[in-house]
Design goal:
By secondary structure, this protein is an alpha/beta fold. 41% of the residues lie in helices and 17% in strands. Helix 4 runs parallel beside helix 5 and helix 5 crosses helix 6.
């Protein structure tokens, strides 16, 4: 049975992580994903962190964390790589402290001097994939010891695009689903699995194809609507056929996070999206 979860956009609207979680509880959500920026000591001091975990546990709310979008685990930088390894280990620790079960991670972009978006040599990209794989191999023991799974998220191959927030980003380390699966396979750890983002899949090789390719390693889902060009839309307002996906969604035993990015009324968008999903999945989802 999947757990329909609300994303960290609610925290932005409500003001604090605890208030965001209280919104989730009050509106009948049993899952919540929190952005890493809300797990800092400034945003969530130790006493508030304990309160956050207690509220989630008492109300049966599953938790996940999204790593910073500007992290680049495939980086070639000899200065940045060890820093990121330290940061992901610290974030895994903070995730475990609030009771989160999954840390979502992006593969991001090929970096390095002279790199031109859209013109990355395949030999350089292959080296970036090796860097990404070794990053996960080095992070996995900490994740496994803490009981947190790193969920590597599928991204559309888009060198140099604006994301849903209008921020310029590049996703050009991994081109295909098979490459993503191979990275997770080569990480060789039960603490490294896949986060399937449905909107991203709609803009890549396809949603059904993603479920089929990722099935052995699928641990976490991001769910939102897409028209093939713009994703992270309110469910029911674009073109994804969620009713047609019901046979894939209904048996999924973990969190499905509604990662909806809208400027106006994110709380209302989350509730409406949840209700539309529930109308399709019925008692097969909570």
């Amino acid at each position: 049975m999947p757990t329909i979860a609300v994303s960290g956009g609610i925290i932005r609207q409500m003001g604090t992580p605890v208030k965001g979680l209280q919104f989730a509880v009050e509106h009948g959500f049993y899952g919540m994903e929190i952005g890493a920026r809300y797990l800092t000591p400034e945003q969530l001091p130790p006493e508030e962190s304990r309160r956050f975990r207690s509220i989630a546990a008492l109300n049966g709310v599953d938790l996940s964390v999204h790593a910073p979008l500007d992290w680049n685990p495939a980086t070639f930088s000899p200065e940045l790589r060890p820093r990121l390894l330290g940061e992901i280990r610290a974030l895994l620790q903070r995730s475990a402290e609030i009771g989160a079960q999954v840390l979502v991670l992006h593969a991001a972009a090929v970096d390095g001097p002279g790199i031109v978006r859209g013109q990355v040599p395949e030999s350089v990209r292959a080296s970036a994939i090796e860097r990404l794989t070794s990053f996960l191999q080095e992070s996995a023991p900490t994740a496994q010891a803490l009981g947190v799974v790193i969920g590597l998220e599928n991204l559309p191959y888009l060198p140099g695009v604006q994301d849903a927030r209008g921020i310029e980003r590049s996703y050009d380390v991994l081109k295909t689903y098979e490459e993503l699966v191979q990275v997770v396979r080569d990480a060789a750890s039960p603490a490294v699995r896949i986060t399937l983002d449905i909107g991203h899949a709609d803009r890549a090789e396809g949603i059904w194809e993603a479920f089929q390719a990722f099935a052995p390693y699928l641990r976490h889902i991001h769910i939102h609507d897409s028209d093939g060009r713009q994703d992270h839309q309110e469910i029911g307002l674009a073109k994804v056929d969620f009713k047609g996906l019901s046979d894939l969604l209904a048996p999924f035993p973990h969190m499905m996070v509604m990662e909806i990015i809208v400027q106006d009324d994110p709380a209302g968008a989350a509730i409406r999206s949840r209700d539309r999903l529930k109308a399709i999945l019925g008692n097969a989802a909570r």
